Amino acid sequence: MVCHNGRLPYDGGMKRGAPLLAAMLTVLAGCGPGTAATPLAHGATSAPPSAAGSPTPLDPLTGCTSSVRFSALPVLARLQNADDVSVAPDGSIWVSDATSQLEHLSSAGALLQRILDARAPEGIVVRPDGSLLVAEQRPDRVVLLQPAQPAVLRTVLQLNLPAGATGVDGIGYDATIDSVLVPDSPNGTVLEKPVTGGTTTQLASGLGRPVGVAMVEDGSFVVTAENSTGLVHIPARGGAGSPVPGLSDADDVVMSGPLAYVTSLGTHQLLAVDLTTLRTRVLVTNVDSPQGLAQLPGGKLVLTDSTTGTIAIASGCD
């Protein structure tokens, strides 16, 4: 029997007879004033349970497969100058060729539709209703179109292109408020604009040439840039960001839980970055020009190489 705060726990099965009470008092006498002993759990040791009740967080990078060369990946399709990519709710895929067209592919890679666009389509986002947000680099704007009527465009955001600069590249999307996230590449800022209309908000500035953006679960977001600082984590309400070390000249980014999947033009790789620990894991190597990146419903990644026009499937860490 173990003393606890100088009192003996009540045993509902005990009789309250005098002999037993005397025995109990004798045991209590062995517990000095102020003594407080705690029963040990079955199988426990006397070591202080400093981590009890606090399970070790799972490392999201443990699910990553070993790195592979891009040439070893399964090829979904080929499209000259394949650039940005976005996955529709039904698992089909939209790809821009960065010069003159958009292609809609089935999950097996079959061509479903081709939309001609001579205004250099770059970033592309499929909204939940199937409509497309497209960043047109030549006129430096973001437009909304319905695939069934691709000639009918509505300008969501017209940007200000400085003389001699290259226009907008990738774009992101905040589904919670139906707004487009726009890295204003030539001006070094990130903007947010409701798709249905409203005020344009500047979320960050001084980013060099930002070209990709993705939302994080906590409402913050990550921005890729074609600079020596390739990945920056921006707070939920905007403002100064925190550079992620070890990444430069990044192009596209996709969030999956705490992991940011990032394409790096500088290292010709696809990487996974744990935003909590800032550790990285290389997933794919030897990609000539890793550009577009999107995640399929099952966790696989669609990765494009604009040099070879290859659209391939890579494994993530999920």
Task: Give the topology.
Layout: H1 18-29, E1 68-69, E2 75-78, E3 85-87, E4 93-96, E5 101-105, E6 111-116, E7 121-126, E8 132-136, E9 141-146, E10 149-158, E11 172-174, E12 179-184, E13 189-194, E14 201-204, E15 210-215, E16 221-225, E17 231-234, E18 242-243, E19 250-256, E20 259-264, E21 269-274, E22 280-285, E23 290-295, E24 301-305, E25 310-314
Parallel strand pairs: 1-22
Antiparallel strand pairs: 2-25, 3-4, 4-5, 5-6, 7-8, 8-9, 9-10, 11-12, 12-13, 13-14, 15-16, 16-17, 17-18, 19-20, 20-21, 21-22, 23-24, 24-25
Task: Throw out a few tags for this protein.
four-stranded antiparallel sheet, 25 strands
Written overview of the protein:
The chain has 318 residues and is mostly beta strands. It has two domains: 1-37, no CATH class; 62-314, TolB, C-terminal domain (Neuraminidase, 6 Propeller). It is 4% helix and 40% strand. It is built from one helix and 25 strands. It has a five-stranded mixed sheet, with no helix packed on it. Strands 2-25-24-23 form a four-stranded antiparallel sheet, with no helix packed on it. β3 (85-87) and β4 form a beta hairpin. The protein is globular. Mean pLDDT is 86; it is low at 1-51.
